[in-house]
Amino acid sequence: MGVDRREFLKIAGYAALFGLGGKAAIDILSPGELEASMQGIPLTQGKRWSMVIDMRKCLKQQEAGKDGCKECMIACHLEHNVPDWGNPKHAIKWIWQDKYEHVFPEHPNQFIDEGVRHKPFILMCNHCVNPPCVRVCPTQATFKRESDGIVAMDMHRCIGCRFCMAACPYGSRSFNWGNPRKAPKELNPDYPTNRAYPERSKGVVEKCNFCVELVAKGELPACVQACDKIKVHALNFGDLDDPKSNVRKLLREHYTIRRKPALGTEPNLFYII
Amino acid sequence: MLERAIKGTSGYWGWLIFLLALMGIGLGCYLYQFFEGLKVTGMSRDVSWGLYIGQLTYFVGVAASGVMVVLPCYLHDYKAFGRITILGEFLAVASIIMCLLFVFVDLGNPVRIMNVILYPTPNSILFWDMIVLNVYMLLNIIIGWNVLAAERKGIHYQQWIKVLIYISIPWAFSIHTVTAFLYAGIPGRHYWLTAIMAARFLSSAFCAGPALLILLCLIVRKVSKFDPGKEQIRTLAGIVAYAMIFNVFFFLLELFTAFYSQIPGHMHPIVFLFKGLEGHGNFVPWMWTAAVFAILSLVLLIVPATRRNEGTLTVACIILIIATWIDKGLGLIVGGFTPTPFHTVTEYWPTTPEMLITIGVWATGFFVLTILYKIAVSVKEEVAA
Predict the structure, then answer these.
(1) Beta-sheet strand order (sheet of A235-239)
(2) Predicted confidence band at A6 (pLDDT cuts at 50, 70, 90)?
(3) B161 at the A interface (CB within 8 A)?
(4) What is the number of H-type helices and E-type strands within chain B?
């Protein structure tokens, strides 16, 4: 964008007049340049975001507490205004737990060791390299960000046909069967919990978005932050494309598994058992 | 020609008012669903499609089956069907209207439906389904209307209509193939992930559609002076018989692959539908009804004496329609979603509002069908007189 000195001063003056900060002025002048200048923050430049879940650490923490550990789920659902319907048929799930046999149904083994049998595993969207949900969406309301591999969702474009829910082999997509604001008040006393995050109407699909809104600011996803806060560090978020990244190091050093790899979706979520 | 729709007997008006009443009830329930959300239906996060999408699938088949009268007539020059092509084409139009309405009532956000056109997405099969269904409906309206108008004037229809007729023949196959592709290309839904899905869809369509057409021909003969013809009904019955043999055969192929390979994912949906899985078996009586009716209808259709007798043929057509409807309008969808990606079973059964909305859409389809048939039959009566 070509801006001469005179115009720069004019815009800067208006910006100052309206009390906008430095970032706003820069955004008006040359959108995107500020982001480029934030390259020093490694989080904003991942090319293939992924997560390595260390289930040993997670299960240890879950067994330490009386009611297990729900920190990551609470943090995520507060961040994204996810209501509790109190009805499993209408549940909205971004990050949740299910037992090992349900998470890896293709690994049945009646003599499986006690370390994993019936144990609650952490689930979320796999942010597949080859996502079937994106392939079937008739409006591109769900799409894969070329820049960093996040499978994102535009809840304001979604028509609610639920083709993506049929296509996702991981049950990672949820539908707003009713208006989130009409979810039972006693279960959601403080809803909406985060005014900064968009609310949805009824009739749209939603899912884990790897906290694009936080990653864009150079922050870790809410679930990872919550896990780090209690010093468990079971959730490891990083760039698979960078050989020196935390996730690549974990994958080099541990045997990991992914959900339903035979389907060719290439999940970006890995589990250390 | 439209004015013929407003001149009818009291029986005709009574039937239309009855359908209007059902449409009104359906609309009321739809408004309730519109304001409350799809939580008023029996669908859930695990079984996220249900009765509506099942009906879409079933009636795409009925629409496609119009080609079973058009193809012999225009490609094989089987003149006898010239008398009833209009009935096949108008049945297709009414069916597609139902299909589009079933998609519409299934949408969580129907006000955004134009997003499908505003953001055209060729990699989505739903985008193509929208195109083929709408074009097929237009083709049938244009062809049916023009051929009927020419018949009324006692002239031959124009040449460009013939071009559209030839296009409409492969197009009919395409609508049900594309509809099968909605399901057959989805990873992780074993009941749907089968290369034979489109062939199964077409075979069940080509028996269920003409079976319905036979019943409609018999009704037309009863309520009007126009007789669709004995030979026509007899030929249709032959088509129904062959298509049903293919339909059952294709299903048996599915059973073989699932149960000889013993791959759990392939067996589970079928076990769920016919025997129950993990204590859930609400579809078992339905599926066995379908199986028994399918075999009974086959016997009645294959034995020449019962196929040629219009009384037993009527019974065969009715139970065949019930069997194929349970298979495709009910079992197909639920079987695809069962077991869930977590190998659990979540039960589905439509709620009362969901059923009333479905009945409302059927009534709308039959309302359109009645009016179109009334026009066609009045023209035929006039020409004969």
Answers:
(1) A235-239, A49-54, A269-272, A256-257
(2) low
(3) no
(4) 15, 0
CB-closest option in A91, A161, A263 to B187: A263
Query: Are B298 and B244 within 8 A, CB to CB?
Result: yes
pLDDT at A41: 46
Whether A156 and A119 map to the same domain: the answer is yes
pLDDT at A34: 46
What residues of A are in contact with residue B122 (Cβ under 8 Å)?
Answer: none
Q: Distance between CA atoms of A67 and A247, rounded to whole angstroms? A: 29
Query: Closest partner residue to A169 among B48, B182, B187, by Cβ?
Result: B187
Whether residue B43 lies within 8 A of chain A, CB to CB, comes out as yes
Query: Which is nearest to B43 in space by CA: A178, A134, A187?
Result: A178
Q: Are residues A9 and A64 in the same domain?
A: no
Chain A to chain B Cβ contacts (< 8 Å): 139
Query: Which stretches in chain B have pLDDT values below 70?
Result: none
Our CA angle for A43, A47, A50, nearest 5°, is 75
- Would you mind telling me the total number of residues written for chain A in this entry? 273
> For A91-109, what is the mean pLDDT?
92
The ipTM is 0.92
| CATH fold for domain B2-384 | Formate dehydrogenase/DMSO reductase fold (1.20.1630)
Q: In the prediction, which pLDDT does A106 show?
A: 86
More confident residue, B9 or A45: B9
Burial of A197 from C-beta contacts in 10 A (0-12 / 13-18 / 19+): middle
Cβ within 8 Å of residue A239, ≥6 positions away: A42, A45, A46, A47, A48, A49, A50, A245, A247
**Structural domain of residue A196, as residue ranges?**
43-272
Name the token pair of A12. 């800067």
Q: How far apart (Å, rounded) are the C-alpha atoms in residues B329 and B365?
A: 16
Whether pLDDT at A37 is above 80: no
Chain A positions touching B118 (Cβ under 8 A) are: 139
Which residues touch B161 (CB under 8 Å, ≥6 apart)? B142, B143, B146, B147
Query: Mapping DSSP to helix (H, G, I), strand (E, B) and coil, where does residue B60 land?
Result: helix
User: What residues are paired with A121 via a beta bridge?
Assistant: A98
* Interatomic CA distance for residues A48 and A21, integer angstroms: 32
Q: How confident is the model at residue A65 (pLDDT cuts 50, 70, 90)?
A: confident
What CATH number is attached to the domain comprising A207? Answer: 3.30.70.20
Task: Answer yes or no: do A22 and A67 share one domain.
Answer: no
Give the pLDDT confidence of B347-357 residue by residue, as tens digits: 999 999 999 99
